[in-house]
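Researcher: Re-running this chain for the archive, since the previous output was lost when a drive failed. Same request as before.
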Amino acid sequence: MNLDYLNYPYASQRMATFAKKGMVATSQPLAAQAGLDILKKGGNAIDAAIATAATLTVVEPTSNGIGGDAFALVWVKGELHGLNASGPAPKSISIDAVKEKGHEKMPTFGLLPVTVPGVPSAWAELSRRFGKLPLTEVLEPAIKYAEEGYPLSPVLAKYWNAAYKKYKETLKDPEFKSWFDTFAPEGRAPEIGEVWSSEGHANTLRSIAETNAESFYKGELADKIDAFFKEHGGFLSKEDLADYKPQWVQPISVNYRGYDVWEIPPNGQGIVALMALNILNGFDIKEKESVETYHKQIEAMKLAFSDGKKYVTDPEKMSVSAAQLLSEEFAAERRSLIGDEALSPEPGTPPRGGTVYLAAADSEGNMISYIQSNYMGFGSGIVIPDTGISLQNRGHDFSLDPEHENALEPGKKTYHTIIPGFLTKDGEAVGPFGVMGGYMQPQGHTQVIMNTIDFHLNPQAALDSPRWQWIEDNKVLVEPNFPSHVAQALARRGHQIQVALDGGSFGRGQIIWRDPKTGVLAGGTEARTDGSIASW
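Model: Regenerated structure tokens:
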């Protein structure tokens, strides 16, 4: 791959990081270092990823938690494996039951949008299948940070304070008390540099480590979750937890200009990035800072999203297959709709036939692309008392329209925003990549891959490059350093361009590329957060 490691005029002038023995890239320095420490103790990239992921539940609770979901793409011995550790809706919930509680759409906070958490099962299953060290050793850094505490980093403190202010105004019911006890023990959000700890979180992590997550799904932690939901009139039960298992799945891909771009299949939205790239594959993209390039990117993403939002749900409930959505025939049909002006897309008909991301690599060639989330920051606002288990609100994405593809059903998995990415060429690993951030994720994946393949940018420059984000209809947000002349030209084509001053909405990414000849690792991390690369 001919990447420019020296110059890129819109980058922050940070350079890619190089290493030989191992690398961990994520959004929080303490978590990245925890992963590297595990590598140095003899663990592999998968052990490092689990350690980093567990530590992130402690040192970045604003984006993820023990009660969230996870996905992973794992490269081991020349083969790519996919893990879907997203959980379904409780078996006792239904559209009618939600409406009987006075809701016309799925609420954002509270007990109702909570689905079965998959994160603990992901750690245990990755460790069982690919890890070298026992889970008790791998989770030790996270346990220590929860027990002994750590000082808040700047971006973390910003989002923590924003969440506290919002929750204080909106979360008044008794079931939310434990969130404030856990994350605002002094009656406020902790500040930059202030030490926060959680003994309950440490005890929960220790229990998960000692039982390989069995306590969470069938033991003492499951009992506590069950009791809390019974007390407050929720639907999640111990039976839902006991019946849950993560799934190994076959990753899906498209070939983009000689490179294979890989994603987890639905219910994840990674297929949206692949559909966009499939559309863009038919265009001759010549230069980066061109209105024609950005226009085509935005239009392709709009078309891909309109199809993704219509068709993507629990794979067992989808009316079309991933293969149909990724077919050349369908891509050509959608590509033909792109003209000179911005369009308002409608879904096509295929032919029949708040999140953390991390990347890790080791000297043996093992690599992992891993993502976990509570959704919308802290998630549901529900914390099981004295456990540190902050539960996700992933069920918010379910529709209460029974005719909708993603309609709420008992035991069904919803459309899922979190997606890990992986890049290969000619059967060899290039490496893991990801950009977290709700519906920005497939947009970030598309932009990062094009920056890498079309424009030959190194990992750091590919991440630092100014981003755009399609919101709805013709509304597009751009970062303040996005080229002004391009933004004005896009506006003349009918795009409703708005400059967004808060960079948090544009995602937070990590990249690790591996040179197949030398084994040298090149990494990039995110300037839009407290991003860090720990390398060896």
